[in-house]
Amino acid sequence: MPITVLLADDQQLVRAGFRSLLRRARDIEVVGEASTGDEAIRTARALRPDVILMDIRMPGLDGITAARRVLEENPDTRIIILTTFETDEYVFAALAAGASGFLTKEIDPDGLRTAVRVVAAGDALLSPSVTRRVVGQFTGRPARASRNDRLAVLTEREREVVKLVASGLSNDDIAAALVISPLTAKTHITRAITKLGVRDRVQLVIVAYQDGLV
């Protein structure tokens, strides 16, 4: 089954460009388009796509509000916020809304197709510059007191792995640092995500910083 994609952008030429780029991938199918936030919600409700490429600035509801409402109705949908703007305000608003990816429109065609596949598989994806912003934002904050000590549910090894994830290491880097296989590193990350009740790797990083692990 191909990965189904909904394109939500107020510019018809942008949607046509995305459709053309994604059409070249046999495992990806564009099933619908929307030009406003409200239309994106209605179309997502009708089509239940695997992935939505959502612009931020659209008439009516903005893309972040639309993303939040789509995910309230169907948490299994994965949303990539795709925009020309890369400010902290948009990055953190998108993550708070539950977006699985945040990419600028400067991304190359192969990168766009890879992003769709990555988030459809259940992982999170951010451009390197956005990742630096996320890490930098939380590095400068004091850890807040955790009422439920969320990290207490993790094993010592899982805490070790989450700390390395929050430091920006890939699965391969983590495997090399801990002398384990990349598959084992991925397993630890998956278990930590499940135990902490977060959506993906990005929110795992945020929890690590909020609770003072890093």
From TrEMBL:
The keyword DNA-binding applies. Residues 4-120 form the Response regulatory domain. One of its GO terms (biological process) is phosphorelay signal transduction system. Residues 147-212 form the HTH luxR-type domain. The keyword Cell cycle does not apply. GO terms for molecular function: DNA binding. Keywords: DNA-binding, Phosphoprotein, Transcription, Transcription regulation. This is DNA-binding response regulator. Pfam families: GerE (PF00196), Response_reg (PF00072). The modification 4-aspartylphosphate is found at residue 55.
